[in-house]
Amino acid sequence: MLGLPKGVPLLIANSLFTSIGFYAFIPFLSIYLVDYLAWPPLLVGLLLTVRQVSQQGPTFLTGMFADRVGLKLVMCIGLVIRSVGFAMFAFVDQIATMFLAAVIAGLGGALFGPTGSGLFAHLTPEEERVRVYSLQKAVSNIGIALSAGLGAVLIYFDFALLSLVCGGIYLVLAIISHWYLPDVRSPIKRWSYKDMGRVVMTDRNFLLFTAIMTGIWYIYMQLYFTIPLQLYQQTGNKMAVSLVNLVVAGVVILFQYPVVKYLTGRRPFLTSLTIGALALGAGALMVGLSGSLAGIIIGLVFFGYGIIIVEPVQYDLTSRLANGELLATYFGFASLAIAVGGGCSQGIGGWLFQQGPALLWGSCGAVCLLVVYGLRRLGKRDNLVALGP
Length: 389
Prior knowledge:
80% helix
C-alpha cells in the first residue's frame, strides 16, 4: 500500500474503522441524552467530560506501561474495553450507569490511543511521518464521512442498535490487530517508571508545547458536542447533525494531503500550527455566531482546514520533541492536553452554552488568541526557532 512499512496499512485501516465506530456514536449520544432522556446540556457535557478525562487522563501511565510490555498487546486490550463501554449504553438509562459506561469507554481509549500513535512512530521512518500521518488522517476522515450515514440510519431504528454496532466494530478490530499487527516493544528495560516520568516532566519545551495544545483541543472538541447541539437547535432535525461530520470530513479528505504537502518544507512547524489554530478559532466563531445554515457550513469548512494542519503537525512535533525510546510515554503525556482541553470544552463548554451560546463562542475566540501568543513565545526559544520540516 503506497510503499508503506509493514503494519502501517493495518494501522491506517484501524483508523478508518475506529473513526466510523466513534463518530457514528458520540454525536448521536448527545442528541439521545438531550432529546430522549431529557438531560440538560450541562449534565450531557459532564458525561462527555468524564469520558474524555477517563480516556486522556491516564494516558501518561498507559503509555509508560505500553513502552515496557508491548504496544500491540495494550492496544488490543484497549479496543476490547472500548467495545464493552459502547455496548453498555444499549442496556442502561440511569445516570449512574451511563457514567459508568462512559468511564469504561474512556479507559479503553486510554489504552489504545497512545499505543496506536507509538506504533505509527515506531514503524514509520522520521522523514516519512508527516506524509504517513496525513494519509492516516485522510483515511480517518473517510471514516468520519461514512459514520454520518451509518449513525443516521442506526439511530433511526434504535439507539441500542447504534451502541451495539459501534461497540462491535472495536471488538473486530481487536481480534484482527492481535493476529496481524507486528509487536513493538521499546528497548527500555533498564528504565524504571520513575525515570521515564522524570524524563518527560523535565522536558520544558515539550511541557510548554503540551500546555499550548490544551487550548487548541478546547476549540477542537466543540466539534463533538456544542457544534452538533447548535445545529440541532437551529434546525430541529437530529439528522442534520450528520452534516457536521460530512462537511468537516469532506474538507479533510479532499485537501489533507495536498495542503500538508504544500506546507511541508515551506513553513516552520510552529508557523503552520499557528495558521491551523487561527482557522479553528475562526471556524468556531462562524458556526456559533452566524445564525444561518450557510454560515455554519462556511464555519465548518474553516474548522476542517484547521484540522488538516493541526493534527499532522502536532503529531510530528510530538515525535520530534520526544525521547526516541519513550514514544508511547510522550504521546501518552501529550494526550493530557486533550483531557484538560477537551474536558473543559465539554464541561465548561456545556455550562456556557446553557447560559448563552454567545459566551461559549466568545471563549473560543479568546482561547485562540492565547494559543497564538503561546506559540509565538515557544518559537522564540533558541532550540525551536528554526524547527521545521
